[in-house]
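As the next step, I selected for study one protein, both as residues and as discrete backbone shape codes, as given directly below:
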Amino acid sequence: MPEVALIDYGSGNLRSAEKALTRAAEGTDAAIVVTADPERVLTAARVVLPGVGAFADCMAGVSSIPGMVEALTAAVRERGAPFLGICVGMQLLADVGREFGDTKGLGWIGGEVVRLAPGDPKLKVPHMGWNALHFTRAHPLFAGIAEGEHFYFVHSYEFRTRSKSDRVAETEYGGAVTAAIARGNVVGVQFHPEKSQAAGLKLLANFLAWQP
């Protein structure tokens, strides 16, 4: 039975992500496994990295598990296991996070994570609530999901990718904000699919079926 490793590194919202992935996996042979074991990650068929809170705290949490960063690199970057980063789990793919000083990220997708600065001063930070997606290019992660579909966001920082080609979806919040990124077998979403009802479950099901 192919395992989907949901990484437990002390970040919040793990149970919501586990519950949503389990629902999305119904009718498939995928087994959702919450784990902090690098050996489990090394052999996983797919890997999901959630994340809630500050970039530095989340990066420190992943790095504090002996062998976890190396296992993620081996499984995803070298073996090619499909990977999904959620919220700060996506942001950790950047070169650097600028929250509370500079913190080095995983560096899998070039760019930086910077504080939201909406062009409209009436818009509050954190950005919290339902926002529509605009697709900047087609991707299997969004198969069967309509342009303008709403997903649930909670964040104060955004991932500014170095290359536009790494962005697959944006949302409008006083200017265009990166909503989803993708390169090869790696995808990430700024919003929370586990809190996005039917559209979120569809996206997770797409990820579980995706063959990059």
